[in-house]
Amino acid sequence: MISYNPKEWFTFIIHIHKADTLRQLLPLIVAISLYTIAVVVVDVHILHLDKESSAAKIAVMHTLLGFVISLLLVFRTNTAYERWWEGRKLWGTLVNCSRNLAIKLKAATPQSEHDWFRKHIEAFPYAMKNHLRNVASLNESELMELYEVHKMKEVKHVPMQMSRVMYERIFQLNKEGKLNAEQTLIINSELQQWMEVCGACERIRNTPIPFSYSVFLKKFIFFYVMTLPIAYAPILGYYAIPIVAFILYVLASLELIAEEIENPFGTDANDLPLDDIAKNIRSNVDALFKN
Predict the structure, then answer these.
(1) Distance separating alpha carbons of residues 243 and 33, to the nearest angstrom
(2) What angle do CA 280, 282, 283 make, to 5 degrees?
(3) Whole-number percent of the chain with pLDDT over 70
(4) Residue pLDDT, tens place only, 202-260
(5) Residue 282, exposed/middle/buried by CB under 10 A (0-12, 13-18, 19+)?
(6) What is this structure's pTM?
(7) What whole-number distance in Å separates Cα of residue 213 and Cα of residue 65?
């Protein structure tokens, strides 16, 4: 995720970062500009069309369609941002329940168990991050010191298995009389949220925007922009070239931004900072058990 100061307007204008849509759309903008030049040359110098020609009257259609496409793009971007924000809230819940779980386990369990629970709580957000990114196994460089990685290498759903191991340990302590029923019930309320957060994140990841809607919007933008030069070349002449290029940039950028943030658990520049959140949980839990 990109960190920035929202008050630095001038910096935003002149800076082009790797996720900037202008960089991604530049080949397409150049292509549509060349296409517009060809249309303008044909209309103005060969066909000699004027502002009252039938081609120019297509501009009325674009005025009406512009309102429709704006509504579609607003819905598209709002839906994508809602998914991004829901993902952030879910990982905020994971932070809170991990801290609360660590607090309760330290207070309720014998000191001899603290190091075991600390390692498992710290390892879970890393495991869930890798699971959401479709990493086949735990990342040993992150978790070798936190968890017994060799036991989880062949497991398909690592967060579920880690949750199961935690439950087994807690129930074993209850059987041994080291945790009473009330303490077990209190700890369960926090531990249960692990899989609830994981399941909600999987729902976001595995349920993209409906295919037919996404395809229709891309086709709509394409045909809308491709017919713009035909409509505005007789009216604007060569001024139509930068105007059409700018309209393409605006419309296509909104679609690209929505595509990038609708799955917020990846490694794109605008995705959620899962690595930083996992490190934050690790730092908090480690400090708690050491004090």
Answers:
(1) 9
(2) 65
(3) 82
(4) 999 998 888 888 888 888 888 888 888 887 887 778 888 899 899 898 888 888 888 88
(5) buried
(6) 0.81
(7) 17
